[in-house]
Amino acid sequence: MSSIVGRLALALCVLSGAAAADKPERVIESILPSLAYSASCSSTVELQNLADRPVAVELEPHKSTGALVPLIGYAGTTLHLNSGEKTGYKLQIEEETTSAWVKVRERISSPQLSPAIAVGGKTECVADNHLRTTIREVAYPTRNPWFAGDVQDIRSDLISLINTSEQAAKASLCYSAGGLFSVPRETGPNPELAPICSTAFAVQIPPFGSRQFPVQREGSTYFSLKTEGNAIVLQMLRPVEPSVKLYMVDSTIKFGSEVAPEGPRK
């Protein structure tokens, strides 16, 4: 009897080990947006391995058009970082842009392992013999994010939009001078007042493409942006100085996102 129990326990251990081995690897993806390159500006992607083991990382650098670009000094995009190693990478972009971006992909092979790569970045611009540096903050894509509100305190800001998926996305923009309207209903309460768009745009964003939109046009006081896409990143950018095309992330601005429907209650 004891031998049968022992064989059953061994079989269960083997099965549980096989089940753990069959679990698919986890993939952690981070987006580093709004990377600027020009004759006076350059951006750096910074990675640091916080684990006590070597880690492989994949970088996927894109132009604003969505096209892939290489890294300066590297033939490929798969990088290996030793324990504690910190490195920086630049994109090989010749034309002037403020909308390049990078997807950082960390593959975790074992369920027992935790993410190990800290991702950051910075943009440096030289103007009037002064070096100005702004930090680039990591963002994560959401489904159908949106923004709406008065622009009195953010008139010079830009909204950066990145479509991080392989499918095209849509963006609808509304600039309003303050007028409101409502369509009365025959039955039930009337809907809430909505802004009258003095200027409106509908924009299609290609796969992996990025765009930047000003929050004010021709004296408008209200701005809204609605998107349709499975994996979109929005960031609000605030200018550092009017004379320099350098923007910093305004982390005080919060964006809405599509709320997942609740599942059936038990």
Description:
The longest helix has 21 residues, at 2-22. The two termini are 42 Å apart. Mean pLDDT is 86; it is low at 10-21 and 259-266. 8% of the residues lie in helices and 47% in strands. It has a 4-stranded antiparallel sheet with strand order 1-6-3-4, with no helix packed on it. It has a 4-stranded antiparallel sheet with strand order 5-2-7-8, with no helix packed on it. The protein is mainly beta. It has 1 helix and 18 strands.
Helix and strand topology:
Layout (H helix, E strand, L loop, with lengths): L1 H21 L3 E12 L3 E9 L5 E8 L15 E4 L4 E4 L7 E12 L8 E11 L2 E7 L9 E5 L7 E6 L5 E8 L3 E2 L12 E2 L3 E7 L4 E5 L7 E7 L3 E10 L2 E6 L17
Antiparallel strand pairs: 1-6, 2-5, 2-7, 3-4, 3-6, 7-8, 9-16, 10-15, 10-17, 11-14, 11-16, 12-13, 17-18
In the sheet with the most strands, the strands line up as 1-6-3-4
Task: Determine the N-to-C terminus distance.
Answer: 42 Å
Number of strands: 18
- Broad structural category: mainly beta
Provide the β-strand percentage band. over 45%
Low-confidence stretches: 10-21, 259-266
Approximate helicity band:
under 10%
Helix and strand string, N-terminal first? HEEEEEEEEEEEEEEEEEE
Q: How many individual helices?
A: 1
Shape: globular
- Biggest pleated-sheet summary: 4 strands, antiparallel
